[in-house]
Amino acid sequence: MTTETTVGLDKETRDIVKATVPVLQEHGNAITKRFYELMLEDHPELKNIFNLTNQRKGDQPKALANTVYAAALHIDNLEEILPVVKQIAQKHKSLNIKPEHYPIVGKYLLLGIKDVLGDAATDDIINAWEKAYGVIADVFINVEKEMYKAVQNSPGGWIDFRNFKVMKKVVESDVITSFYLEPEDGKAFPAYQPGQYITVKATIEGQPYTHLRQYSLSCAPGEDMYRISVKREDPMGDNPAGIVSNFLHAKMEEGSILPISAPSGDFVLDQEDTRPLILMSGGVGLTPMISMLETVIKEQPNREVVFIHAAKSGNIHAMKERVQEITQTHDQVTSYTVYDSPSAEDVYDKEGHIDYEWLANILPTHDAAFYFCGPKGFMRTVYQNLRNYHVADTDLHFEIFGPAEDITA
């Protein structure tokens, strides 16, 4: 990749880009916030793609800024950021981002830089960044092209969105409901890897744009259907109710049609690894963990598994009966429940939060594969505890929307 993608950039251009990265990082959130404002004002149709909730929270501008600046910092050797490129490309594939979107993004990113930095953004700087963005965009386009091709060539695979019918709707807890999905056309559809997600396209009455949301598949591959388990996001503080989650809970019934993308994501269970598997989830982060648990008991029946789930209380703890059933019928599996605010009727293993002392007491070894998913605060705590437990970086697996530094800092 290095020789092909950076050969068109002269040394002066690369030096300017690398020299200006610290300045742009300092103003990164302001630049990308302005970029989105300008772009969506001129191209409102892109509101059908971008998650406007993440815009409001600032997650999306922050994620974009960090990606672009990391790429610029490694402009001499973009191989360095290939793992990050592939992870983001999975998201882009799920959202059906196309090559024609990249020039639009590039144009408004440069306008955002000029708008925020003013006279400090000289013609030389803007020209250097324009060239660098072209190189970075080509890397993403090429990686995504291969991913789209792989999906299209898989049995039953498809590009863009395909209509699936809700075959069953199951209330799992006070806030989580599962939707079982099969293709409306009755034709084949691809298997997936445990931990992957699909994108749902919601067309909601009274909303001028469609809304795209990504939900992990919560059952094991090979079940002849897809299942997503969706938490209803109720209003909290400054955050309004989740538009899509409330729509799904209130409007999607058995027989309803839901357009979805093909499965994506690289946060997947490594089934070549035979060491103990530690699955840790908080709240609705349970969904990819359940898929991994259901998979490992089928495919690796001798692999030791520790399953830890943290929730506020029993009434919002989804799928607890299924985990109990698996634990009772599979000697390889041990499970623990942690409740922050349990009721008098709740049965659990620990009250409060996961902490280092408790983890060190229940975990079989630090030489294991650790997968964890949940709210950022939960993931930050788990990450720090596992680092203190001397787990190798290569054995820590997690997925987050936004910068990994939100968890690892």
TrEMBL record:
InterPro entries listed in its UniProt record: FAD-bd_FR_type, FNR_nucleotide-bd, Globin, Globin-like_sf, Globin/Proto, Hmp, OxRdtase_FAD/NAD-bd, Riboflavin_synthase-like_b-brl
The entry's keywords: Detoxification, Dioxygenase, FAD, Flavoprotein, Heme, Iron, Metal-binding, NAD, NADP, Oxidoreductase, Oxygen transport, Transport
Gene3D superfamilies: Globins, Nucleotide-binding domain of ferredoxin-NADP reductase (FNR) module, Translation factors
Ligand binding (NADP(+)): 283-288
Active site, renumbered: 102, 144
SUPFAM superfamilies: Ferredoxin reductase-like, C-terminal NADP-linked domain, Globin-like, Riboflavin synthase domain-like
Residues annotated as domain Globin: 8-145
Annotated TM spans: none
Region (Reductase): 156-409
Site (Involved in heme-bound ligand stabilization and O-O bond activation): 36
Domain FAD-binding FR-type: 159-270
Binding site for FAD: 197, 213-216
Cofactor dependence: heme b; FAD
Catalytic activity: 2 nitric oxide + NADH + 2 O2 = 2 nitrate + NAD(+) + H(+); 2 nitric oxide + NADPH + 2 O2 = 2 nitrate + NADP(+) + H(+)
Domains (record comment): Consists of two distinct domains; an N-terminal heme-containing oxygen-binding domain and a C-terminal reductase domain with binding sites for FAD and NAD(P)H.
PANTHER family xrefs: FLAVOHEMOPROTEIN
Purpose of the protein: Is involved in NO detoxification in an aerobic process, termed nitric oxide dioxygenase (NOD) reaction that utilizes O(2) and NAD(P)H to convert NO to nitrate, which protects the bacterium from various noxious nitrogen compounds. Therefore, plays a central role in the inducible response to nitrosative stress.
Protein name: Flavohemoprotein
Gene behind the chain: hmp
